[in-house]
Amino acid sequence: MNILVTGGAGYIGSAAVKKIIQEGHEVIVIDNLSKGKKELVDDKAKFYEGDLINLEFLKNVFSKHKFDAIMHFAGYKAAGESMINLEKYSQNITSMINLLDNMVQFNVKKIIFSSSAAVYGEPQYTPIDESHPLNPINYYGFTKLECERIIDWYSKQKGIVGICLRYFNVMGDAGLNYRDPDAQNIEPIIYEVLSGKREKLLIFGNDYETPDGTCVRDYIDIKDLVHAHTLALNLNSSDIINLGTGKGTSVLEFVKKYNIPYEFSSKREGDPATLTASSKKAKRLLGWIPKEKVIKN
């Protein structure tokens, strides 16, 4: 297949490019390099530097290639920042519309979208399945949900197959040694403490209703995540699928494995005590079972 990967120089996108090239696909990458690194892009991929909100640029790329499918990883993803800079995060929605419009114009029939568990908001029950009520509590989650809804409209009206994969907490780097230049998530922050860039790690809250008082999260290895994307290429109808392990690990339990200095800080607004996924649908539709161990011994 000839696959367009947006955000293919970024954290998850570069790992996906590596994997799908190994599986024999032809890959074209778009990335604006705001956080991605061109050196992470596999040499066998064709690379275009540009932004998805630039319609002229996007149309030029589509006119040069015949795509069988798109993997859409590009987008802004910091939940806290999204509550301050709505204009920036609205580009997540604009980019999606631009992609879909070009798919219609150039007759591309499949898109696999990098969505998020943030669409669920405060969990009403765990593990969370795909039927859980949708109530995002930050603008980032809202943009992901709006993109899912727009895909649904294009699927019904334009015949596009849209597969939305809702990620939980992604870990690892698939051997690419990616380091987030603006670390917001726990693993890259741990690496910054280990390297001396940070003095210690802050754990937000220690009085949640969990076994050790810290938040419990569902951590999934990026190699398992990317594998799910390759399996999704085989789906021929639109769907929404959770990607998580169904197993919860507390933040404190995770941090203690790395033997680094840490300190408790006040809770962050909108952080649920426990977030774990039901992956039954992924197993049923994709034959997907996560295999990687995300917490080192």
Helix content: 25-40%
User: What series of H and E elements makes up the topology?
Assistant: EHEEHEHHEHEEHEEEHEEHEEH
Overall mean confidence score, pLDDT: 93
In this structure, how is the largest beta sheet organized?
Answer: 7 strands, parallel
Number of strands: 14
> Which of globular, elongated, flat, extended, rod-shaped describes the shape?
globular
How many separate structural domains?
2
Q: Please state the second-level CATH architecture of the largest domain.
A: 3-Layer(aba) Sandwich
Annotated CATH homologous superfamily of the largest domain: NAD(P)-binding Rossmann-like Domain
**CA distance, first residue to last residue:** 39 Å
- Based on CA atoms alone, the radius of gyration comes out at 19 Å
The unreliable regions are none
Q: Work out the strand percent.
A: 15-25%
The strand order across the widest sheet is 3-2-1-4-5-6-11
